[in-house]
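Feature request disguised as a bug report, sorry. It would help if multi-protein outputs had a clear separator. Right now it looks like this:
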Amino acid sequence: MASFVHSNGDRSLSALIDLDRGLVGREIYVNEDIYRQELEQIFARAWLFIGHESQVPNPGDFVVSRMGEEEVILVRDRRDKRLHIFLNSCRHKGMKVCRYDDGNTLVFTCPFHGWSYDTDGRLVGVPYYDAAYHGELDKSKWGLHEVAQMCNYYGSIWATWDPKAPSFEDYVGAYAPSIRHCFQSTDGADNGVELFNPVVKWRIPTNWKFPGFSFAGDAAHAAMTHRSVNVAAIGPQGAMEGGSRSPMRTPFPSRSYSVGDHDLGHGGQNTIYDQTGAPSHTDTWQTIPEVDEYYRKTAEEKQKRYAGKHLPAGGHGGGHFCIFPNVIIDHWRILPWHPHGVGMTESWRLYPVDRNAPKVVKDAQRHYVMRYCGPTGLTESDDMENWNYCFPASKGTIAQRLPYNFEMGLGHGETDDQMPGLTLNYRISEEPARARFRRWMEFMEAGSWDDIFPVRKK
């Protein structure tokens, strides 16, 4: 059973989480020993979001991403164009072999001693190979360390360090259709998006679980936290119809829920559609009619593609969701929360846009997400202020004796055949967070994947 070091001696982690009563100990957010266990038990095992294939379209293209605290390189092999993901660390003495966020290269050369690696990870160059190593170093054993498994899922790139992890589709379970939907263009075509470059990154002084376990699962905060921005009319429609921070949408028969997968840990704010097909476009971009014209046409194409079929529960107006442990997915923004210490999180924003959209549409979408998201945006800076105060306010001796309350909606979950295996609750509840904590506990106590997959029903 997992335990952690406390001033009063070792204690069981399970003593800090009582999901039957909706109570979570603050110590799991602030304890250094628990955090180190998370890196080993969760981030070294789970499937993690890396990026998108549009970031590396050409042979030799690379982009640096993260898996837990560690940097990895997503690169397209310059020979066979295959994608690879390598730990950004030289096998000689550990120096980064790539110190740029993105670019194109023939080889990755370590700036410490000059070991160089091909884009397929092979060690191809060692200074003084004959004179100092006497030609005896077996270069085939010292290539860059590659992830155990990688999945290109409709353009989105995921990876795990664990060779025993289940397949990606088994890992995401019922959310596979929603992930596919989020990487469709607005006309419903698979893998129809590209990402804006560069990735927006900044650090916030808080534990990764504050945003990772509350985002896409805390609808209750909006009325208070975002009170000012809700009336600031930052959406593309401006002040029309009262203004909003989100684009206008055509009404469509549906029901909104907060959703938790208590087996796999995923969940968010999602929608069940009571009618097949897709909604039409509502003119929104009041000062840029070309944008409305484009989205009106793509909506018509999507209606044809989804004729007789229900829309998936997430993305394109259907809500956003967390793929356990640390990434929020939507069709217009992807939010990974990378741990950088028990009290530091690196927040990333990746913004998809229709690959085939004209420049005027891409520019309009880019300007909108800049207003909405990011460290200087008008919405998520509100959230950061909350999380940045929650962490230090939970570190004290007295504070750690008091659990967090996750009771909202407890005992009021339901099921629906359109979202099998998931627990649905009122649109404002803490069902998604409770699902994440349940899976967190299972990962932290598991000796291996054999202990947590296939899921053992309680």
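(second protein starts here, but nothing in the output says so)
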Amino acid sequence: MTDVLSGGDAARHLDHDAVDCNQALGKLFEYLDAELGTPDSELIRAHLAECAPCLGEYDVEVVVKNLVKRCCQESAPADLRLRIHERLTIQHHPLATDVRPDA
């Protein structure tokens, strides 16, 4: 069986013979974010349907993800956004601040 957590080319895709809990949990965030290909996503879905402990972990992660999404919807004030943009522009183009019009 392929060990998803070990890295390398063999770990990029789940073993299509079976998925163990380590593999399912190792790919859980990718599954939640819809970043898995169809075959791997179906394997994780099938594992979650048959494994109560992994399904419980999935449920917890869904709740946390939704809570973070709901609580982090504030946006920065316009003047703060402008100051950050100006600073980033200055850092990216340091000579832009040294150029002065001839007067």
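Even a blank line would do. Unrelated, but nice: Helices lie at 21-26, 28-32, 38-50, 52-71, 78-92.
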